[in-house]
Structure formats: structure tokens, C-alpha cells
Amino acid sequence: MEYDARGWGTQNMRYAIVALLGALAVLAGCASQTKPDPKKDYSRQLAPGQSALELVTDIAQYPDFRAMYDDREDAIRALRLSRGWFDKPSSKTHYPFEHFTHERVSASLDRLIEILEQSGRGEEMSGLIIRDFDVYRSVGWDGGGGVLFTGYCQPIFAGSRERTERFRYPLYGLPPDLVKDPDGTPRGRRVGGKIEPYPTRAEIDGGRLFEGQGLELVWLDSPLDVFVVHVQGSARIELESGETFYAGYAGKTDRPYSSLGGALVEDGKIAAESVSLAAIRRYFDSHPEELEGYLNRNESYVFFQEYPPGGPYGSLGLPVTPMKSLATDKSIFPRGAACAVDTTIPVFQGERLTTKPFVSLAADQDTGGAIRSAGRCDIFVGIGPEAETIAGYTKHEGRLFYLFLKESRMRETSGARP
């Protein structure tokens, strides 16, 4: 993609500058990331009947709740959104989850919000959480608690509601033959009286499968931009008319997801320690003839719907909060629950991209389309070009915790909504 002023607004020019700064920072050694061990299979599935959560009985293994005090206001906003979701009758269809009841998880949110609002310092907040809550940890990829944290964002692209010479690559709405379970899990497509696997990405795009069906929602000017929106699950599209189109996740096919960066690393195109969205963009800027083949290695395909302003929205229908909303495998983790994260994230310090510890409260409010294990978790990092750069470099191991009000405290705090 060319980053020039032709047809680009200031937001898109800033995208180019931020992406370039991020790339240069990494190449110059300014980002001291601790890369995950490539030998670890973070996508490993749980054994049949195995729970993704285990009770932490040693307080020394808890995250440092004191370190979560300074940004508690953002956490409160995210937790309140989750608590509102539990007031919806539909939320009860997802509980009980294992032995966690709807009442217990919603009461956990009530009490945690109350603690955050009333605590005067980090030590007080930590003490109350430790006193009132059971802390569970994700068993991780191998039962030892290791979780790979990645980042996702809402990118901003230029686009058009109509196909033009420049904007030729569509985001599609849900096709009528896509079959999903009630929880959104894709099953395939209906052909006659049978359900069969949905066509691959190559068959959809190369075969113009949806041509003439009117499924095109909006058009972008690059197939890589379309792919990025598929991976991130949402986008803000700045239209030629001056309007903004908000694209949000609506569903996906049952085909397997394959990492674009992983394929480039496997083929020796990008070094494993340098892989990022910025590096991927640079590679295909120099090798545009290879783009289609690599995109088609990911057979999965994502569909969208237009959303009103105020998002992006997670799979619970809630607006997601930067650095406080998590996307996990909802078949093994409880929706809407209060969480704590202990990992590392990339950050900008002026023009330098570096890393810092990230120890924070959060809420499980979204579903990762490619996240199907106890060893994976996505953090929503924000909106726009800087967030896209941060998301592209977020790939660190850490620990994921869930907080549930102790059953002995349930009666005492019942009805005490803040």
C-alpha cells in the first residue's frame, strides 16, 4: 500500500507515520519485547472434561492487585458494562457455567466495583479483594498457567459504499446459507437438506461466490486492509461522502484460521523476532504479487454488519473498553466475568516503542475468532493507527485470572449493588 496524500485524510497519514515509527523503533532495538517461546503450543486444546480454570490456593501466586489501583476508573467502566449485561434475561442462558452461577458472577461484579470505588489506596483495595474473592487462574496451554496475550483494535480505513476504481475490495454481510449454533459457533452452509463445510477464502474471493447477491456492505482499496478487518473483527471506514461506516463482526465460516505472520515466518520471509503487522505491510508493499496466495492460506472468512456509533462492540453486544476488555474462548471461559491480567504490553514513549509490565483488572466481554484454547487471550487496545501498531506488536506470555466472590460472602453482599 502507498502511504501518500492522494485521497487520504489526516487520520490516514497519521496511520502511516505511526506504523513507520513503530517499525523503525523495533528495527533499532528500542522495543525490548520478550517473545513467546515458539516451541509452546498456545493453541493446544484441553483434555476432555478438563476445566480451563483452577483455584489458586497460594496467595503468593496471586497477581499484584495493588498495581491495579491507578487505572481503576477505566476498570470500573468496563466492569459496569458487564454488570449491565447480567441484567438482561438472555445472559442467563449462558449460566450456570461449570459450577459458577449467574448470581455469583453478577454479585462478584457488584462487590468488585464497590471495592474499587471505596478504596483509598492500593493496599486497601488489594486486601479487600484477597479477603472477599476466590481467585482462579487459566490453566494455560500446558496446565502450568502460561497464556499468550495478543492485541486487537478497531482500525480506521478509507472506503466507499459503492464500488469505484479505487475501492474494489468488499466487506460482506452475512450470507443467507451460513449456519450457526445459537451461541454463534459456525457449522457450515446449508445445501439442500444437508450442512456442509463453507467454501474457503480462495473459493469465496477467487470464485466471486457472492457476486450479484448484494452482500457488499462497504468497499476498501486493498485486500490486505480487508484481511486486517477480518482479523480485528471491526473497523471504522471513513467514506468519500464524509460519513463514517462502523463495521462490526457478524459471523464467520467454519474453516480454520491460519496466521498470516506465521506463514511468512515459516517461509523465511520475515524473522520470527521481527514479525508484526507493520513488518507484514512492508513485505507485501515490496512483494504485492505474493499477497493473494498468502491471504488464501487462511481459509477462514469473516462477515460484518453495520453498527451505530459508540462501539466497537464485543460479542456480548457491549462496547469494549481499551486495555480493559478481553476476548477469549467462550466455550471454556465465563462470559462477562471479572478478570485480572498479568503480562507485558508494548507502549509508545514519544517516538520510541518499548514495553512495560501490564497488571490490570479487566472484563471478559468478547470472543476471539481465532482463539480456541485456555492458552490464548486477546486484549482490546483501542481505536485507530496507534492502536493498530500496538496491537501488531502485542505478543507476550502472561497469566490470566478470574475473580469470583467467595460463597461465604455472597449472603453478606447480596443486593449491595453500587
Describe this protein's structure.
The protein has 418 residues and is of the alpha+beta class. Helices cover 28% and strands 27% of the residues. It has 11 helices and 17 strands. Strands 3-16-13-15-14-17 form a 6-stranded mixed beta barrel, surrounded by 6 helices. It has a 4-stranded mixed β-sheet with strand order 4-10-11-12. Helix 1 runs parallel beside helix 10 (385-393), helix 2 runs antiparallel to helix 3 and helix 3 runs antiparallel to helix 4 (122-132). The longest helix is centred in the first third of the chain and has 18 residues, at 10-27. The chain is globular, with a radius of gyration of 22 Å.
Topology of helices and strands:
Elements: H1 10-27, E1 53-55, H2 72-86, H3 102-118, H4 122-132, E2 133-138, E3 147-154, E4 156-159, E5 169-172, E6 178-180, E7 186-191, E8 194-196, H5 201-206, E9 216-220, H6 223-232, E10 234-239, E11 244-252, H7 260-266, H8 277-286, H9 291-295, E12 302-307, E13 325-328, E14 338-349, E15 352-367, E16 376-383, H10 385-393, E17 395-405, H11 407-413
Helix pairs in contact: 1-10, 2-3, 3-4
Distance between the termini: 49 Å
Which residue ranges are poorly predicted, with pLDDT under 50 across at least 5 consecutive positions? Answer: 1-33
SS content category? alpha+beta
- Binned strand content: 25-35%
- Portion in helices: 25-40%
The main pleated sheet reads as: 6 strands, mixed, barrel
Helical segment tally? 11
Order of helices and strands: HEHHHEEEEEEEHEHEEHHHEEEEEHEH
In total, how many beta strands?
17
Radius of gyration: 22 Å
